């Protein structure tokens, strides 16, 4: 069975069907992009499968488990990491603290444990900091570890959000427009990051408008239009698909 | 160095009753009375800041939890003749359980409606305290609340009550520090700053909001029990909604979400009006103007002023 799957997923807003009976299948280790014109339902779909929006029909499966209607924090705990299009980081926390925040639930320490700072907790904290610094280093932000996330540039914040999503080592990573409004250098860096993630065996589902990024790194592309899946296949095949061309440019 | 500073500061605070006796022998009682209120207000403000400052929920129910703890301890001490050592934890537990029961429906509301809902609860609590005369004695007040006895320790004198208050604010401060730093603190702040992103980090927003709300409520109940044991009388007016306003002034005056800030705010709030008694006619006018001045000049509270000052002080010496 696929690592991640939706069957007939549907979401309506006041009569508008934002996601219309969408079937997705993503195998473990795949790098898949979800594209479509503005308003085609990509982000809504993301929000439905990660527990942020209740869906109206259909089911969502992750690792053979039905996760339809499961709360967002539980889905995250199961091993689904995600980034957001707009809200990306905790601006008042430092870059390092942002990452540490994402390593919350792996070991409950409890109020008492915190108060007496048992050695086990300290050791765990040290391991967490080490991992966070490694991830910050991999996105080139190690030098800004103690800077408040709000003081970073827009592109840096996106990289930070990306690193934070990886902190708990999720199996599936959903990235919502990681390259949007980011300068070209940063886009290349982001592309490299996503490739590296894929090489490490992680499964990636990407929503992206930047076609260079999508065509360059995806193994498979899924196209949504008006909430419906209209095409699916290799980047080259999708690019030539008349239905896709019509969706983007009209008749 | 740090330990030395803390030790000296602690020793000074413990020695305050003797210092006051030496410096102002005639005014000893009055000054200690103000200081006792300051310590209890400090502990109450810290418990309130767990909710307002750290998970960002503007609860106005705090006077109710304070009152539930106070009434539980007072009625158990007078009617049931419980010892203080049993009545105090009962007050803490009653307030904590009430916070748990109230929190579940209240946290279905968000932002302003949460504030309104908790305000409604606080009003109902005061009305019950006023009108359930057979149980709370209503406006006749619970009187003759015994002085606390904890085993061989009898708290009856003003210095003893001051040390009790100091212990209360110290323990609350430790709890506050433990809860708001490290991983638990990061979870609180994540929920406060961005609930969606917190969920993506596997943090259950409701769980952490409830945790802060229930612990804050339980501590407020404990402070209520200490308060009545000191004053000896408990009236429904103690549950007035205006208590929330006073607490909010302390928090914003001192610095929301900061241990030092909240304590400084509580001290400034209780001590300032007393110091200003030197100018009786204009006292409250000057007080209001001072508050206004602080809010305009330091919107992040006195904590921000302290932080900036100490940073500026450190810089020329090269760290």
Give an overview in words.
The complex is a heterodimer of chains A (251) and B (319). With 251 residues, chain A is an alpha/beta fold. Helices cover 39% and strands 24% of the residues of chain A. Chain A is built from ten helices and ten strands. In chain A, the strands form two sheets. Chain A has a six-stranded mixed β-sheet with strand order 6-7-8-3-9-10, sandwiched between helices. Chain A starts with a strand and ends with a helix. Chain B has 319 residues and is an all-alpha fold. Chain B has helices spanning 2-23, 28-54, 62-78, 84-106, 111-131, 133-136, 158-180, 182-193, 195-200, 205-231, 242-254, 259-275, 283-297, 302-314; strands at 149-150, 153-154. In chain B, helix 3 runs parallel beside helix 5 (111-131). Chain B is globular and about 55 Å long. Chain A binds chain B through residues 50-52, 71-74, 76-77, 81-84, 87-93, 97, 100-102, 104-105, 109, 111, 114-115, 121, 125, 164-165, 167-168, and chain B through 174-175, 178-179, 181-184, 186-187, 189-190, 193-194, 196-205, 215.
């Amino acid at each position: 069975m696929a690592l991640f799957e939706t069957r007939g997923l549907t979401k309506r807003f006041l009569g508008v069907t934002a996601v219309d009976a969408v079937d997705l299948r993503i195998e473990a280790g795949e790098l898949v992009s979800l594209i479509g014109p503005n308003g085609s339902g990509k982000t809504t779909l993301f929000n439905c499968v990660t527990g942020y929006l209740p869906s109206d029909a259909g089911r969502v499966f992750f690792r053979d488990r039905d996760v339809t209607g499961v709360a967002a924090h539980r889905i995250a705990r199961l091993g689904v990491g995600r980034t957001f299009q707009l809200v990306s980081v905790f601006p008042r926390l430092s870059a390092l603290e942002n990452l540490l925040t994402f390593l919350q639930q792996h070991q409950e320490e409890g109020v008492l444990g915190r108060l007496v700072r048992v050695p086990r907790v300290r050791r765990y904290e040290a391991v967490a900091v080490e991992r966070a610094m490694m991830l910050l280093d991999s996105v080139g932000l190690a030098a800004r570890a103690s800077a408040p996330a709000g003081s970073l540039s827009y592109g840096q914040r996106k990289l930070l959000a990306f690193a934070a999503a990886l902190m708990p080592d999720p199996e599936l990573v959903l990235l919502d427009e990681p390259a949007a409004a980011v300068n070209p250098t940063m886009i290349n860096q982001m592309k490299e990051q996503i490739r590296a993630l894929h090489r490490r065996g992680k499964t990636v589902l990407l929503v992206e408008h930047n076609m260079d990024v999508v065509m360059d790194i995806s193994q498979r592309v899924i196209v949504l239009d008006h909430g419906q899946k209209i095409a699916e296949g290799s980047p080259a095949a999708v690019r030539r698909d008349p239905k896709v061309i019509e969706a983007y440019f009209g008749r | 160095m740090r330990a030395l500073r803390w030790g000296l500061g602690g020793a000074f605070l413990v020695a305050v009753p003797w210092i006051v006796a030496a410096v102002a022998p005639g005014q000893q009682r009055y000054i200690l009375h103000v200081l006792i209120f300051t310590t209890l207000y400090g502990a109450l403000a810290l418990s309130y800041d767990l909710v307002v400052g750290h998970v960002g929920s503007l609860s106005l129910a705090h006077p109710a939890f304070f009152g539930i703890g106070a009434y539980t301890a007072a009625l158990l001490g007078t009617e049931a003749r419980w010892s203080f050592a049993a009545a105090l934890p009962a007050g803490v537990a009653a307030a904590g359980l009430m916070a748990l029961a109230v929190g579940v429906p209240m946290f279905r509301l968000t932002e302003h409606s949460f504030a309104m809902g908790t305000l409604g609860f606080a009003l109902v609590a005061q009305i019950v305290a006023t009108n359930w005369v057979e149980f709370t004695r209503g406006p006749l007040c619970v009187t003759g609340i015994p002085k606390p006895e904890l085993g061989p320790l009898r708290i009856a004198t003003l210095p003893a009550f001051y040390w009790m208050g100091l212990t209360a604010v110290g323990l609350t401060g430790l709890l506050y520090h433990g809860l708001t730093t490290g991983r638990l603190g990061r979870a609180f702040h994540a929920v406060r700053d961005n609930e969606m992103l917190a969920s993506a980090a596997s943090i259950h927003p409701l769980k952490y909001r409830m945790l802060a709300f229930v612990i804050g409520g339980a501590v407020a109940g404990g402070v209520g029990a200490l308060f009545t044991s000191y004053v000896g009388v408990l009236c429904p007016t103690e549950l007035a909604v205006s208590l929330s306003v006073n607490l909010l002034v302390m928090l914003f005056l001192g610095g929301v979400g900061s241990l030092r800030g909240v304590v400084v705010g509580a001290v400034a709030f209780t001590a300032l009006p007393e110091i200003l008694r030197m100018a009786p006619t204009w006292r409250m006018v000057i007080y209001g103007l001072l508050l206004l001045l602080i809010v305009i000049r330091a919107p992040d509270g006195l904590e921000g002023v302290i932080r900036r000052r100490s940073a500026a002080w450190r810089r020329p010496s090269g760290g």
